[in-house]
Amino acid sequence: MTGSRHTPTSDEEAVNRILDAVDSLVAEGGSPIRVSDVARVLGVSRQTIYRYFPGSEALVVGSQMRSANGFLDRLADHLRGWTNPAAAVVEGVAFAAEEFADDPLMTRVLEARLPGGTSASFTAGAAFGLGREMFRRYDVDWAAHGFDDAAMDDLIELAVRTVQSILLDPPERPLNPVALRNLVGRWLGPAVLYHQLTRDIDALTALTHASQMASRARGSAKLA
């Protein structure tokens, strides 16, 4: 790439330079990312950019995913050893909110909207996908705590919406780390515990029903 100090020695280096340019444009804010703007920053032709990315949306998604991978690695390190579901969810959401507050690229993933006010489909999908990856990196044995795929999807959606709420409609007073975790704990802690409680109640109900059926069977046998 002529606008760089030297020609990239690999496709990976070329892609990273392109995404670095996208990141710098996102940090500046303003108009949507365009291939022509990225080419201008790098001092190359648009055709050079198209060699690696088919269009503007692919540039944005590529930049988002690169940023997300770095975040996920930091999250995994931060939550290593957190095995309690409620504690891990609360800490993970608070950590994400703190990280994203200083990352305009990741904030854009959460705040992008279509003219009608709904989330753009690819960004909404990216946000949920990021939430799923967050939960996959936790040290929690979700299945052992009774969370099947449907329960996990519900919890992931709650977590993503909580991060969105904190970033896009923050409290009037800035929250210190302890206050942020107390707030997230009040929102999400009960959701995690509710699922576990209902699972235990369902198990107890099934056990009681089985006991009643067995008692009735014994009574019928005596009458016979």
Automatic annotation (TrEMBL):
Residue ranges occupied by any HTH tetR-type domain in the UniProt entry: 12-71
GO MF assignments: DNA binding; DNA strand exchange activity
Cross-referenced SUPFAM superfamilies: Homeodomain-like
One Pfam entry name: HTH_7
DNA-binding region: 34-53
The entry's keywords: DNA-binding
Keyword Hydrolase: no
InterPro entries in UniProt: Homeodomain-like_sf (IPR009057), HTH_TetR (IPR001647), Resolvase_HTH_dom (IPR006120)
Keyword DNA-binding on entry: yes
Protein name according to UniProt: Transcriptional regulator
Naturally occurring in which organism (per UniProt): Mycolicibacterium rhodesiae (strain NBB3) (Mycobacterium rhodesiae)
